Amino acid sequence: MAEVLVFHHVQGLTDGVSAFADDLRAAGHTVHLPDLCEGRTFASVDDGFAYLKSLEEGEDDRRVAEAVEGLPAGLVLAGFSYGVGPAQRLAQTRPGARGALLYEACFPISGEWAFGPWPDGVPVQVHGAAGDEFFQEDLPAAQELVARHPGLAELFVYPGERHLFSDRSLPSYDAGAAATLLERSLAFLERLDG
């Protein structure tokens, strides 16, 4: 079974993100779920970003470093939206990553915003909604990842326009798309064990 580190989205460690982690645990995986907002949740994406902007410079990175401290090298790194940043950065820069699950965001693997090239041998899935304005901005980066690493990278685009569609505790939840996302994620983790 995989050991997965999941980073929540900008609205905080919501009940929906916790429920997703529980779904992975129910399938036999070990899941670490740090709270980068230290117990706070936010009613909107804008409120979450306002909180992050209020932090001292470097505090966000310090919390991510603290979350990964002491964890083994062979992690699957997962993140939802804002949480894709730390998940993807660690997958690309921390030696030994087993895989990555990037939900509703993706950073470039080339150019000035890149964490660096995608590491050899690290499989990745990217998931997002076709009409989601946030994901649309990142779609070219996801397409580049798949084009450059066709044997490692998969891109799944879901119908709809909701951001954070997989969080069952938010009004943006789309039960059908979220169920498919979970099914594909579990299949990905199962392949890592194979």
From TrEMBL:
<dbReference type="GO" id="GO:0016787">
    <property type="term" value="F:hydrolase activity"/>
</dbReference>
<keyword id="KW-0378">Hydrolase</keyword>
<dbReference type="InterPro" id="IPR029058">
    <property type="entry name" value="AB_hydrolase_fold"/>
</dbReference>
<dbReference type="Pfam" id="PF01738">
    <property type="entry name" value="DLH"/>
</dbReference>
<feature type="domain" description="Dienelactone hydrolase">
    <location>
        <begin position="4"/>
        <end position="191"/>
    </location>
</feature>
<protein>
    <submittedName>
        <fullName>Dienelactone hydrolase family protein</fullName>
        <ecNumber>3.1.-.-</ecNumber>
    </submittedName>
</protein>
<dbReference type="InterPro" id="IPR002925">
    <property type="entry name" value="Dienelactn_hydro"/>
</dbReference>
<dbReference type="InterPro" id="IPR051049">
    <property type="entry name" value="Dienelactone_hydrolase-like"/>
</dbReference>
